[in-house]
Amino acid sequence: xxxxxxxxxxxxxxxxxxxxxxxxxxxxxxxxxxxxxxxxxxxxxxxxxxxxxxxxxxxxxxxxxxxxxxxxxxxxxxxxxxxxxxxxxxxxxxxxxxxxxxxxxxxxxxxxxxxxxxxxxxxxxxxxxxxxxxxxx
Length: 137
Prior knowledge:
Layout: H1 25-30, E1 39-44, E2 47-57, E3 68-74, E4 77-81, E5 86-88, E6 93-96, E7 102-117, E8 135-136
Parallel strand pairs: 1-8
Antiparallel strand pairs: 1-2, 2-7, 3-6, 3-7, 4-5, 4-7
């Protein structure tokens, strides 16, 4: 018997696999071409998993309330920091600590995955032509 503690909010048993909720990152990335627009692919508690295609330089910005995790799916990401750059290749992650000013940059098209609290603005406290609300992928 399924108890309320062992069910998801959608009513399915918590231990039931659901192929409809499997996310294929490569397929999601193939579904759009625009750059610098975060696409929401999953939610984990109060966090969102987002993907984006990027090329060129973003803006310098800070997230005062949260860390920001970057995972490179393809390409090369340079995260410019005032203390020195961090370069990430496919399969590598870096967490920018809260309050640290940073500027993502990619010389060629790069696909990234980000993990951050829901509602986190992509440009932190800055507002620019690069500020985008995430869209569902």
